[in-house]
Structures are given as structure tokens and as C-alpha cells.
């Protein structure tokens, strides 16, 4: 993902604008609060590693975690992460296309809205969200590098994250057709050692029986669909023990 709007100030030579720097510090601060890793901050701002690490420590009270970012595209295909990622990406795309918030601003604001949806109906935000901020950022990069696409479910017409070039015809999403193991415990899962799932598993051969219902929900982020999305997320979260 490219940086927002104007060209970022160069680290060397040119005197950096104080206003621009302040803006980037605020942006980095917001992202740290949302759980961003240092690599994400480095990619999205022109602030130095040292400044970012210091900012991170000031806000979080600990050193930033080391190690690689989560690189797996397949993670987004497992059923619960797929539902959450699809909600987030639809919101992000809407923000980026239809509001003044572009790119990294759309990411920050889209992710806030996602959190709101993911924790709706609960008195407080408990536990980790299924989709972390860093994964949300990776997701956008995967879309930008054309590794992923949105496929429309032929039953609910919602658009879901799928591998690029997967056949669109006959696609049924993980909400309309949850995998059989949904709701089973982790212990049970370990015993049965389920095989790895991928996007092909949520696809069916198009048939008359599976003909799309005209009355079903539209694309995920559309206004008025909030309740359905929230209900689906809640149902999915109840079976969360299965994820990862
Ligand atoms: Zn569906």
C-alpha cells in the first residue's frame, strides 16, 4: 500500500516540515493504539526507526515485538478469519472509494469500524479481535499485489475475500455455509486433525437448487445491513475456539 496523499518527506537532506512530522506522529500514535507492529509504522510514515520505537515504548510501556510479520495468505481463507477479513475489507474499500479518507486513513478508520462491529453487543472490548491491525494492513497489501480478490456469494450476495483467480461462479461464503466443524471445541478438533481448508472448499457447483435468492442481503458494508453483519460476527465468534 502506498502512503497517503502527498509524497512523504524524505528522511535525508531536505528539511522536514514540522506540521508534516506532527501529522505522522499522530498517525503513528493512532496505529500503535490499534495494535500496529513497528514494520507497519515504518512503511506508512517517514519517521525514523528510533523515533517510532521510542513512541511505541511511550504508548505501550514496552518494547515493540520483534520478528516477522504474518505473511500467510491462507490465513485469510480459514472460515472465521475470512468472515472478519471480508467485513473489514468491504468497509476499507468503501472508505477509500467514497470518503475523503484514503489509503492509510481508510485503513485506520475502516479498522475502527471493524472493531466496533466485531465487539458489538458486548459490554466491553474483551480479548483480541480475530483480525489484528497488522493483519488488516497485510490484507490490503495482498489485495494491492493482486494475490486476493473479492468473490460474491451467490446466496447472500455479500463479497468475500478469496484467492485471486478463483472461479467466481457458484461461490458460497463461510456465513451461508459454515464448515461442519464450526462450533466444535479445540480439543475435539485436535483429535480429528482436520485437513487444511482453502477457498475451494466454500465453492459449490452452480445448480438450480443453489440459485441466488433475490431477497438476501447485499454487499456487506451497505447501510441497513449492520445488524446482519453483527449477528453473523457474533455467531461466528461464539465458535471462535476453532480459529487459528
Ligand atoms: Zn453468503
From TrEMBL:
Biased segments, Basic and acidic residues type: 186-200
Record-listed Zn(2+) binding positions:
153, 156, 173, 176
Entry's Gene Ontology cellular component terms: cytoplasm
Query: What SUPFAM superfamilies does this protein map onto?
Result: FlhC-like
What does the UniProt cofactor note say?
Answer: Binds 1 zinc ion per subunit.
Q: Where is this region: Disordered?
A: 181-207
Q: Which cofactor does it need?
A: Zn(2+)
The record's InterPro entries line, in alphabetical order, gives: FlhC (IPR007944)
GO MF terms, alphabetically ordered: DNA binding; zinc ion binding
Q: Name one GO biological process term.
A: regulation of bacterial-type flagellum assembly
Task: Kindly list the places in or outside the cell where this protein is found, as annotated in its UniProt entry.
Answer: Cytoplasm
Per UniProt, the keywords (alphabetical) are:
Activator, Bacterial flagellum biogenesis, Cell projection, Cilium, Cytoplasm, DNA-binding, Flagellum, Metal-binding, Transcription, Transcription regulation, Zinc
Assembly and oligomerization: Heterohexamer composed of two FlhC and four FlhD subunits. Each FlhC binds a FlhD dimer, forming a heterotrimer, and a hexamer assembles by dimerization of two heterotrimers.
| HAMAP family cross-referenced by the UniProt entry | FhlC (MF_01891)
Function comment: Functions in complex with FlhD as a master transcriptional regulator that regulates transcription of several flagellar and non-flagellar operons by binding to their promoter region. Activates expression of class 2 flagellar genes, including fliA, which is a flagellum-specific sigma factor that turns on the class 3 genes. Also regulates genes whose products function in a variety of physiological pathways.
Family assignment from sequence similarity: Belongs to the FlhC family.
Designated name of the protein: Flagellar transcriptional regulator FlhC
Q: Which gene encodes it?
A: flhC
Amino acid at each position: 500500500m502506498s502512503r497517503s496523499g502527498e509524497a512523504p518527506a524524505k528522511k535525508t537532506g531536505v528539511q522536514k516540515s514540522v506540521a508534516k512530522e506532527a501529522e505522522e506522529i499522530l498517525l503513528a500514535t493512532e496505529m500503535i493504539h490499534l495494535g500496529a507492529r513497528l514494520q507497519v509504522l515504518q512503511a506508512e510514515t517517514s519517521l525514523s526507526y528510533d523515533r517510532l520505537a521510542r513512541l511505541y515504548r511511550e504508548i505501550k510501556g514496552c518494547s515493540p515485538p520483534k520478528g516477522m510479520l504474518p505473511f500467510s495468505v491462507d490465513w485469510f481463507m480459514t472460515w472465521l478469519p475470512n468472515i472478519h477479513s471480508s467485513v473489514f475489507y468491504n468497509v476499507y474499500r468503501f472508505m477509500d472509494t467514497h470518503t475523503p479518507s484514503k489509503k492509510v486513513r481508510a485503513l485506520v478508520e475502516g479498522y475502527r469500524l471493524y472493531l466496533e462491529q466485531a465487539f458489538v453487543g458486548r459490554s466491553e472490548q474483551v480479548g483480541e479481535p480475530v483480525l489484528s491491525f497488522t493483519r488488516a494492513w497485510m490484507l490490503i497489501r495482498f489485495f494491492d499485489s493482486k494475490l486476493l480478490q473479492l468473490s460474491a456469494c451467490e446466496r447472500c450476495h455479500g463479497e468475500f475475500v478469496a484467492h485471486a483467480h478463483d472461479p467466481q461462479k457458484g461461490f458460497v461464503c463461510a456465513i451461508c455455509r459454515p464448515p461442519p466443524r464450526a462450533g466444535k471445541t479445540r480439543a475435539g478438533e485436535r483429535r480429528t486433525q482436520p485437513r487444511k481448508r482453502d477457498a475451494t472448499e466454500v465453492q459449490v457447483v452452480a445448480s438450480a437448487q443453489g440459485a441466488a435468492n433475490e431477497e438476501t442481503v447485499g454487499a456487506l458494508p451497505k447501510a441497513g445491513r449492520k445488524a446482519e453483519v453483527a449477528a453473523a460476527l457474533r455467531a461466528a465468534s461464539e465458535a471462535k475456539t476453532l480459529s487459528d
